[in-house]
Amino acid sequence: MPGITREEVAHLARLARLELSREELDHFAGQLDAIIGAVAAVSDVAEEDVPPTSHPLPLTNVMRPDVVRPSLTPEQALDQAPAQEQQRFKVPQILGEEQ
């Protein structure tokens, strides 16, 4: 497979609206060629009898069971709040008004 050319890198840079110097084009052409080669090597190693996986080890759900426990009442949670409204913390608006 022929390597990625400097012109192809320049084309990709134009599509991404990046301005690259001649040295950067040469540098990135080599890097992109190495990346494409690494992806091709992985594709060559994968056999048809090996199922695709998202993780090399089998995983199970490691989360604890959800158990209802006593917690603060709304009044207790809002007791020290500087401002509250409708049983919620009231905070300063940081974005413009909703349209």
Can you describe what's shown?
This protein has helices at residues 6-15, 22-45, 74-78; strands spanning 84-85, 88-89. It is mainly alpha-helical. It has a two-stranded antiparallel ribbon with strand order 1-2. A hairpin with a 2-residue loop joins strand 1 and strand 2. The longest helix is centred in the middle third of the chain and has 24 residues, at 22-45.
Q: What's the SSE blueprint?
A:
Elements: H1 6-15, H2 22-45, H3 74-78, E1 84-85, E2 88-89
Antiparallel strand pairs: 1-2
Helix pairs in contact: 1-2
Give a quick summary of the entry:
The chain has helices at 6-15, 22-45, 74-78; strands spanning 84-85, 88-89. It has 99 residues and is mainly alpha-helical.
Unreliable residue runs: none
- Assembly state of the chains shown: single chain
Q: Number of helix segments?
A: 3
- The share of residues in helices is 25-40%
Strand content: under 5%
Roughly how many Å apart are the termini? 54 Å
Which key terms come to mind for this protein?
flat, 99 residues, 4% strand
